[in-house]
Amino acid sequence: MKFVKVILLKLHTTIKWFGLSRLIGSVVSLLFVALAGWWLLRIPPPPPEASLTFAGTTVAARAAADSTPISVSSMSITVHVAGAVNNPGVYKLRSGARFNDGVIAAGGATDQADLNSVNLAMLLNDGEQIYILKRNEKPHTITAQRSPSSATGGSAGSGNSKVAIININTASLAELEQLPGVGPSTAKAIIDYREKNGAFVTVQDLINVRGIGPAKLDEILPQARVS
Question: Of 33, 85, 119, 203, which sits most exposed with the smallest number of CB within 10 A?
């Protein structure tokens, strides 16, 4: 008890000497410093941007989920590569591919190939055939059954005869000469026209070639095709 009185007496003396207002100010200052230190040393919260959802990302993800897949078939073509190539067969190529792409897809040309027999830079169409001739090989043609109505004389007995069907977009000079009424000069004119203007859309477009009139076109139509 005496000890407590001594402490209270000393505390009263100290307050009286230091001043009550100064003592309260010091205590408040210490509390402020302690609070400031805690505020500076605490772990900062994540920035507000971290909790935001970016519209671009959300829209892109939603569009990817909702969009209909693009059909691969609309971006590719199927062609038949045959003749003097290492791996003849049917190949699917990108739309806009050229003859050279088809030859590469088939493993490249063989040592016996006559690459001058075709225009390797020509655009390919869906369902088209690339035939690479061997050196000294006769021109290749695609044959088809001639219908009775188109056979000579229109007789039913001629329905089993075959006629060479020439693809005017890919045929060589020698192949074009197999068309009725087409000689070397007209065949060259056909090749010059397609190299300048691109592939023929229809066989009737031959009317635009120099040296081909309506009568000659009528002769060519049964034996010509485009692809």
Answer: 33
For residue 113, the Cα-to-chain-centroid distance in whole angstroms is 30
Q: Considering the chain, tell me which residue range(s) the CATH 1.10.150.320 domain(s) occupy.
A: 142-225
Eight-class DSSP state of 121? T
Q: Which pLDDT belongs to residue 156?
A: 40
Q: Is 164 helix (H, G, I), strand (E, B) or coil?
A: strand
- 67 has a pLDDT exceeding 60: no
Tens-digit pLDDT profile for residues 120-160: 888 888 888 888 888 887 765 554 444 444 444 444 444 44
Distance (Å, whole) CA 71 – CA 81: 24
Q: What is the DSSP string of 57-120?
A: HHHHHHHHHHSPPPPGGGGEEEEEEEESBSS-EEEEEETT-BHHHHHHHTT-B-TTB-GGGS-T
In the numeric block, the tokens 């021109």 are attached to 139
Residue 136 backbone phi and psi in degrees, to 5: 70, 10
Are 142 and 129 in contact by the 8 Å Cβ rule? The answer is: yes
Closest by alpha carbon to 118, among 134, 131, 107? 131
Whether CATH 1.10.150.320 fits 142-225: yes
CA separation for the pair 90, 129 (Å, rounded): 9
Q: How far apart are CA 167 and CA 199, in angstroms?
A: 10
